Structure formats: C-alpha cells, structure tokens
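Annex B, item 7. Sequence and structure tokens for protein A, then protein B.
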Amino acid sequence: MNRNTSLPLAKKPETPRRLTQRAHRIAIGLLGFLLPTLSYLLAGVRLTTGLEPWQVLGSVSEYYYTGGVGVFVGILFAMALFLFTYPGYEGFIWDRVLGVAGGIAGACIALFPTRIPDGLTPLPWWHPCTGIIHYTSAVVLFGVFATFSLWLFRRSNIPVRAQRPPDKQRRDRACLICGIVILLGMGWAGFEAWQDRSMVIPESIAIMAFCVSWLVKGEVVTAGADALRELRAEMAGSGE
C-alpha cells in the first residue's frame, strides 16, 4: 500500500517550551538591532572629549569608549544571558553548545574591549592581549550566528525541503540569505580592518542580518498578528 508522505502537517502546539524558544529568538534579534543603533545615538548625545559629534568610529566595538558604553555593554551582557539560557530543541545538543559558546563570546566582547580610537586617552589596564581576546570573541560570536542561520534554523523533521510547509520554506530561505550576508559582512569587515579603514558598515550589515534571521525564526510577524487578534478579541468582548 502506498503511503502519502506529502500530507499537510498539523500546526505545532504552543507549548511552554515552544513559547520560550520564540521569546528567546525575538529578544536576541531585537537586542542585536539595538546594539549599533543605540550605541551610536547615545554616543552622539553624550559627547566624548577628543571625538567629533556624531563621528562614525572604526568599529561598533569602539563605542565602548564613548557615551554609549552603558548601552553597548548592557546589551552585550543581556544578549549573552539570552544565549546562555536559549533552550533550543529538546534532544539536540548543538543548540545548547552554540548558545553557550555565543554567550561566552558576547560577554568577552564586553569585558575585553577593542583598542581605543585615536585621539582618546588609553586605559591604563588595556593590553594588546585584551584586544586579541576581543577580536577572537567577535569572530566566534559572528561564526555562531552564521551557523545558527545556515544550519540550525533551517533544520526540520521533514528532510525534503520541498515537502515542508510553505511558511517554513520561506523562513528557511530568509535564514539562508541572512547567513550568507553574515559571512560576507565578516569578510568585508576583515578586509577593511586589514586596510586600516572603518568597518562599521560591514559590521552593522552583518549584525542586522543576524537580527533578521533570529526574528524570522522567532516568527515575529506571526507572534505580532496573534497578539493583535487577541487584543481585538478582548476589546470586542469588553464592548459587549
């Protein structure tokens, strides 16, 4: 007897674990979006002696030395915490391994800053080894995000991609594109650093790509639509 393997799958139940996964993914995506944006804005408002107002620095990490340091460090630690506690899929260890690796890398980026921008007073405790730890951690963190986008976010219990639900196929394509953009952004940033030029733009592009991938995987559009429907239902019920 032939079995029809292309039957539509039932929608996954909204279990507490699934809701936690979704919340973690959306939180990590939003934090990544806020990191370069708020760091730059706060640095422009809280001026730093030796830097021009609204000056674009050599890297996102250099905003550690500006008035945006509180946002920069705070968001990195918040992101590290969410990565540490990211539940992943039950019975699949690589979600947890990469989450912990990304969490450690994010914390190290905050604790071991990059070299200070030109024109500012060096920190007495900064050492070239501090910079090496920072750069290594940044590569690890972006590598983790690329791996999530290219591999983990595109996994499914349906091995044949063409047989997956249309919304899953769309999310897979979006995550694939984001993963490729992250890798290209890393390469571009490395080239700019080698040429001793600012790498804020390629860094920011890579960061935005990882944000989009986490928000897509977190089904942020679906979550927003569900919340809007619930709000409308509550408002309609209260008006009766």
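Protein B:
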Amino acid sequence: MKTLRLLPITLAITTLLALPVQAQSLVELYQSAKVYDASYQSAKSQFDATVAKGEQAKAGLLPSVNLSSTVNRTKVTSDYDSYDHPYGNQGVALTATQPLYRPANVAAAEQGKKQAVLAQAQLDAADQDLIVRVSQAYFDVLAAQDTLTFVMAQKSAVSEQLASAKRNFEVGTATITDTREAQAKSDLVLAQEIAADNDLRVKKLALDQVTGQSAAPKPLHLPAALPTILPAEVNPWVTESADIHPSVRQARVALEVAELETQKAQAGNKPTLDLTGSYGVTHNDGSSSLTRDYRTNAATIGLSFNLPLFAGYAIQNRLKETVALEEKSRSDLEAALRNVAQSTRTAFFGVQSGLGQVKAYEAAEASSQSALDATKLGYQVGVRINIDVLNAQTTLYDTKAKLAKARYDVLMGNLKLRQANGSLKEEDISAINALLDK
C-alpha cells in the first residue's frame, strides 16, 4: 500500500526530470552566478567589512562620552567605644572628551575615507572576474557541444563511406583496402566521439558549479556578426587602463594611505589638545559621629594639553619606517601600471589575431567543402580512392570545429580585453547576449 501511495510522487518526479532543460542566456546565468558563486559572495562581504572599517576611523575626530557608576558599603567596628555602624556611598559620573587638535587622528580619518575607494575597487575586480569566469565556462560548453556535433556528423559520413566501400568490394569494383581504411577511420571517430562526449560533461559541470544550476547555454546565432574592436588602436585602451583598472586604483589608494601614514608618524612629535568635561553626583549615607548623610554635585570643564618630549627614538624610527613603506607603495603603483599596460596590449592584439583567424577559417571551411564535393565526385567516377574522401571529410569537420572555437575565442577575447584595461561591465555581456539564439 505504501508503494502505491508513493507511485504518483515518483511519476511526477520522473516527469519533471524528463522535461527538457530550458536554454538560458549568458546574462541569465551571470545573474545566477552573482547570487550563488562563493568567491563573489566572499568579495561582497569583504567590501562591506572594508567600508565599515573605514567608518571606524572617524571616531578619532568625534566626541567620546562615558557614564560610570560606583556603589560602596563600609563597616567600621571599634573596641574603644563599642562603635559598630555601617555606611556607604553611591556615585554617578558623566565624562566627555572632544578632540580639538589631533593631527594623527585627522590623517587616520582620511585613511578611512580611502578604505571605501579601496573596497569599491576590490569589488569591481571580483565582479569582472565573475563575468569572465561565467562567460568562459559558457563558451566552453558551446565549444564542446559543437565538437561533439561535428564528430557525430563525421561519424555518420564515415559510416556511409564504410557501407559504400563494402558494397563496392562485394561487387568487385573496390579492394579490401578501401573497406579496412574506412573501418579504421570509423573506429577512430568512435573514440573521438567518446572523448568529446566526456569533455562536454566536464564543461557542463564547470558551468553548473559557478552558476548553481543545471545550465543549458543558448547557442551562438549563425551567421554571427562578431564585434570589432573600438577604438581600433591599442594606445587609447592602455591610456584608459591607467585610470580605471581596479588593480591600479587599489595601488593608487595604497600609496595615498601610505602617505597619510607618514603624516601620522610625523604627528607623533606634535602636541594634542582636547576639550574635557564631566559631571558627577556622589551620595554618602551615615548617621554617626564618623559619617553623616550628604550629597555632592561636581561639574568640571577644561582643556587637556599634551606635548611629547622624548619616547626613546620610537617616533623617529616610526617615521623612517613609514617613509620606506611609502616608497614601496610608489613602486607597487608603477609595477601595476606596467603590468596592466602589458596585459591590455596582449589582449588587444589577441582579439585582432582572433578576428583574422575567424576570416581564415571561414574561407577554409568553404574550400574544404568544395574539396570534399570534388573528391566525392572523383571517387564516383574512379579517379579518387576511398581514403581521399575520408581525409577530405576529416579536414572539413576539423575546420568547422576550429571555426566555431575561433568565434568563441573572439567573443571571450573582447571580454578579456575589457578586463585587462579595467572597463569590463555587465553591459558588455549584454552585447554578446544579443548574438545568441532567441
């Protein structure tokens, strides 16, 4: 009976699993990854923590207020006059301090403002990294699907050629060599199909891992109008990277923080001035000759001045340390600028090369198709042998696979170029999204 009750649920689950997975666009999978990806979520949490840490630095410029309370109970005994009477007191005090002149605190507050800029640069870098990771996994799946499709098409063509060779051998118009060559090619294509199918499974798992769902990417709409590089010169890309790249922005903020740290060290020799105030209430209770019941209220306001005179050369050595660290940050910024410029140039020329390869593969595909048609015709009239047809088929499908991969590489190259110079945004994958099947 329990089995019968569970049968409808089992059938429902089986039906859901049997339904085809709806194809998803690149933007849809990117949005899923923003919610699911652990690395990106970690970066968002770090962003919130860094901003909050920066806000803490403002405390050195704001007043501090404290409330304190005391309760005491005293018992005094004396053998002289048989005195035995407890008494006590209670007190409440409110104290406040307002910094008036603390140059070190001013520098620390400025450092806090820089923390927000640093946090945004770090989050931008994480967002760009997520875009590239999702897009790479997306196009890896499409490339693996194309490879499997072409291998299966080649398998079908080889099977037809094998059957033709067997028929010709049976009627005596072909040798056993043709049959064996076709059989060898068929076995090789079968092995390639198994490898391509496994590669597709692995690529799908990688995409599922970053998006958190069973993804089914929408294919590229053909013929695809691949985007060109704008601007078409590399120098504008490099110039822009010096201002907007997240790593450059982080290095620049690190230098500014280091300069402020030097100011804090220099402030170690400077005086400080605070405005202080307090208000306290004390109540004493007692009724003997030693104590009596009374209450006191005390209010004070004043200035607190402090001038460092000598601290065992700690201030001087701290200043030397911060100056050296400031020079290190300046060198780190220069290194970041050079690395970003080099990466941008490399990515730019990579996209240019990719566009050229796509055009070359498109021409090669047309030539390979013409060569295959001519070879088949030659085989039918007896001027070509079976292995010529098989080789022409292999060349055609290999060219098709390389052409498909080259298209995906160009699209990824555009994204990586924008990541290299720091301008990559969600709108860039929206533009690629328009090239996919609807």
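Comment on protein B: The chain has two domains: 24-62+102-270+314-433, 66-98+271-307.
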